[in-house]
Amino acid sequence: MKFKLPKEVKQVGDALIKEGYEAYLVGGCVRDIATETNPKDWDVATNAKPEEIQKIFENSVYENEFGTVGVKTESKDDTLKIIEVTTFRTEGVYSDKRRPDEVKFVKNIEEDLARRDFTINALAVDLSGKQKEFIDPFDGEKDLEKKTIRAVGKPEDRFEEDALRLLRAVRFSAQLGFSIEKETGEAIKKKAKLLKHVARERIAQEFQKLILTDHAAQGVFSLESYGLLPFIIPELQEGVGCKQNKHHVYEVFEHNVRALEYAVKKDYSLEIRLASLLHDFGKPRTKRGRGEEATFYGHEVVGARMARQVLTRLVFPKDVIEKVCHLIRYHMFYYNVGEVNESGVRRFLTRVGTEHIDDILKVREADRIGSRVPKAFPYKLRHLLFMIEKVKHDPLHPKMLKLRGDDLMKLLHIEPSPKIGMILSVLLEDILDDPKRNTKEYLEKRATELNKISEKELKTLAQKAQEKKDNTELGIEEEMKKKYYVK
User: Less Cβ crowding at N or C end of the chain, within 10 Å?
Assistant: First the structure.
């Protein structure tokens, strides 16, 4: 066992030992050392009580009931700014399946390690240097070598203590690329329902970590096979066994997970991974017909609405929710060379936003590869990028018009009202058809004409303008989508 200990960790260990206490590295940092991975945090276990730890380290905080003192260092490395020092402990009954009702301090490291979740996390390193090898009472080192996730002691007891461990087992499996030991896996299936007792925030944290791993797709497959998915995203499981039409090889659930697999392979962001996983999970609720002729009209609209409910339930940040829902809503855009002109591309950009184009195309790539097509980015999508580059500097929203709302009020001598918005909507529609019209002279003349018609006529024109913008592909979209059994 050879590794270089950060000076901050060594200083903490030396200070405890100097005062006559024991000090051991424990938890994930030891697992990371054993797998030659850079630890993301550092934990030290000791027989010193919290108040004794604080006497040794003046610059420390103790704000919990679990014997953990946060020792502040002056390190510029975020992983070393606070080193957690925890008194050897064992834990009482977990009546709520989430946290122990009581914590008892114990005398030695072996008792402390016995309370941990998995053998690979029940390793310790003696910071005094007296014991040269890992302290490993549960054969965690062997499980690391075998790439196995195995519960400490009796698996059912570990999951009864803290139900989040059910999800953590799958997350560690995905994070490390390990398999779950048979008895531990059977216990997960048996105790899966306990996950309903865990706070949504804790589930969301673990699920997000899983999605960001290199084996996220296999992790989601495992969530389904172990019976955990219904307690995280039951809507996603609706795709299990839901067959598609002649344009798809996989059923809905597998297609979604394989889309995620591609997003992971390309190292895409959390939002794109989530959108790829959920992009088609609205299909089971919109399926009409059977076999090769089945249709899923409106699945992207339904899917975006479902995604908002799911991600809100899992307490994801609002900006993540908005981005994922937007990507799902517009991933089904239609484009074919020669069928969509420049004004159609402008309307497309107006609807989805130029800032989202790259990410929408990434979700589209994941969708294609998740359908087992040979090319992620065919010629027609490359042509769309060419067209976008060609028109992206054209006026695409009211703020780019040469005539603003305050200009309209002065020109027409009217007060702020919905009428201003309706006129601007019609003016923008004119400009989307022909950007050369974006001159003050044309817009003033056109606005004056619009001001003379009745409010009812103006409202009708504004509604038509909005409808035309929403039907991005100038009437082609609906017919073509029906042809290809999508919408």
Answer: N
| Single-letter code of the amino acid located at 107 | K
Closest CA relative to residue 307, chosen from 332, 277, 286: 277
pTM: 0.77
173: closest CA among 123, 218, 113?
218
Question: Quick check: 385 pLDDT over 80?
Answer: no
DSSP per position, 424-443: HHHHHHHHHH-GGG-SHHHH
- Of the candidates 212, 222, 214, 217, the one whose C-alpha atom is nearest the C-alpha of residue 192 is 222
What DSSP element (H or E) covers 90? strand 89-91
The whole-number pLDDT of residue 487 equals 38
Q: Please classify residue 276 by burial: count the beta carbons closer than 10 Å to its beta carbon, then call 0-12 exposed, 13-18 middle and 19+ buried.
A: buried
Residue-wise DSSP of 224-263:
HHTT-GGGT-HHHHTTTT----TT-SS-HHHHHHHHHHHH
The C-alpha angle 268, 296, 314, rounded to 5 degrees, equals: 45
DSSP class of 288: B
How far is 163 from 433, CA to CA, in rounded Å?
58
Give the whole-number percent of the chain exceeding pLDDT 70.
84
Please provide the average confidence, as pLDDT, over all residues in the chain.
86
What is the enclosing helix (H) or strand (E) of 104?
A: strand 103-105
- Taking domain 7-142, whether its CATH number is 3.30.450.40 is answered by no
CATH number for the domain whose boundaries are 147-232: 1.10.110.30
- CA–CA distances in Å: residue 315 to residues 201, 204, 214, 274, 410: 6, 7, 23, 14, 47
Which of 150-162 are b and which e, b meaning 16 or more Cβ less than 10 Å from the residue's Cβ? bbbeebbebbbbb
Instruction: Place 371 in a pLDDT band, splitting at 50, 70 and 90.
Output: confident
Summarised one tens digit per residue, pLDDT across range 70-109 is 999 989 999 999 999 999 998 755 565 556 666 789 989 9
Strand order in the sheet with 82-87: 60-61, 68-72, 82-87, 43-46, 23-26, 124-126
**What was the pLDDT predicted at 65?**
74
pLDDT for the residue 479: 40
The pLDDT value recorded for residue 485 is: 41
pLDDT tens readout for residues 261-294:
999 999 999 999 999 999 999 999 999 888 777 8
Which two three-digit tokens encode residue 371?
């359908």
Q: Are 360 and 331 in contact (CB under 8 A)?
A: yes
- Residue 82, strand partner residues: 72
Most confidently modeled of 62-66, 87-91, 220-224?
220-224
- The helix or strand, by DSSP H or E, that contains position 86, with its residue range, turns out to be strand 82-87
Name 12's Cβ contacts closer than 8 Å, sequence gap at least 6: 23, 44, 57, 71, 73, 83, 85
- Separation in Å, CA 275 to CA 211, 230, 243: 11, 19, 20
